[in-house]
Design the sequence.
């Protein structure tokens, strides 16, 4: 029988496994409700019960409440060049290796979450960011670089602290809407690809697999992300445009692993247990052919999803070969 680590890493190498590897993401209210329903004493026990093969290890933030205070009011390139970025040592890396040891049976994911676009949007507003992209491109490029500097330094410290015991760098941002990319492909490539590449290359230097999170319709970015070294894409928002499982698997399944996919917009909140099970089987059959799939939801589980439906999908995942 494979360990969870072996199961995940084999799937990411597009090798057949004893069953599909699985992951889990949920709001705390859902975790608490499931633990109560199943009479489980901890979150770790819940993951064990469901058959989840991945554990996340990150460095907690220990600094002042406003992490990005130094970047909030900058207006010019000159101010950006002089301003201080947050100190990566405001995160606590002291327990990283111990947690990797604790979860050595599982595939361990970590590193800085690194939401470059979302952080920039939060700091100056998405509309302002988009306008500046066209009117002050050099400002935006340096702004994104300074934001990424923190994420880069955080991840360096995390990977060093893990001492070779972390398997996957998992970073996240949101580049898609329900219908298309938030920005043009060309704009993403000019402004965001250089920063994302810095983080991908860093992870590769430490021997880690790279998984990128982005909600929405991002299929237009997948070829470029593959060129940059992405190993896996999360969360596969299947109800977004051009994100159908058959299309993704046939066009990109040879090159990357898909992570997630079971629809949290419609099937899970509104479907019956049998409909959820049928969709779980369908996704595993499509995405899981010849490996390259980690089963899970298309977004985090929210409190509007019946617990029976969550339990049903993991029941299918544990049983399918």
Sequence:
């Amino acid at each position: 029988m494979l360990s969870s680590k072996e199961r995940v890493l084999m799937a990411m190498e597009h090798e057949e496994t004893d069953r599909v590897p699985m992951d889990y993401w949920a709001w705390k209210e859902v975790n608490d409700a499931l633990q109560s329903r199943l009479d489980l004493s901890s979150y770790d026990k819940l993951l064990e019960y469901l058959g989840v093969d991945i554990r996340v290890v990150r460095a907690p933030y220990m600094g002042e409440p406003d992490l990005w205070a130094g970047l909030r009011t900058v207006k010019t390139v000159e101010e950006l060049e002089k301003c201080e970025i947050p100190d990566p040592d405001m995160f606590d890396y002291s327990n990283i290796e111990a947690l990797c040891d604790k979860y050595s049976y599982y595939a361990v994911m970590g590193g800085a979450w690194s939401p470059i676009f979302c952080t920039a949007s939060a700091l100056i507003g998405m509309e302002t960011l988009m306008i500046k992209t066209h009117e002050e491109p050099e400002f935006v490029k340096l702004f994104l670089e300074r934001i990424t500097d923190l994420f880069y330094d955080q991840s360096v410290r995390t990977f060093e602290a893990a001492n070779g015991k972390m398997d996957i760098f998992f970073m996240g941002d949101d580049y898609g809407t329900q219908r298309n990319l938030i920005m043009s492909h060309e704009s993403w490539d000019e402004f965001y690809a250089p920063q994302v590449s810095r983080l991908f290359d860093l992870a590769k230097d430490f021997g880690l697999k790279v998984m990128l999170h982005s909600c929405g319709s991002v299929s237009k970015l997948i070829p470029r992300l593959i060129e940059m070294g992405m190993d896996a894409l999360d969360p596969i928002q299947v109800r977004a445009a051009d994100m159908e499982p058959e299309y993704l698997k046939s066009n990109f399944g040879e090159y990357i692993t898909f992570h997630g996919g079971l629809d949290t917009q419609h099937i899970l909140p509104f479907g019956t247990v049998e409909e959820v099970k049928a969709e779980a089987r369908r996704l595993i059959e499509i995405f899981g052919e010849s490996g390259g799939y980690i089963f899970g939801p298309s977004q985090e589980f929210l409190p509007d999803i019946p617990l029976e439906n969550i339990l049903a999908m993991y029941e299918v995942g544990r049983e399918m070969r």
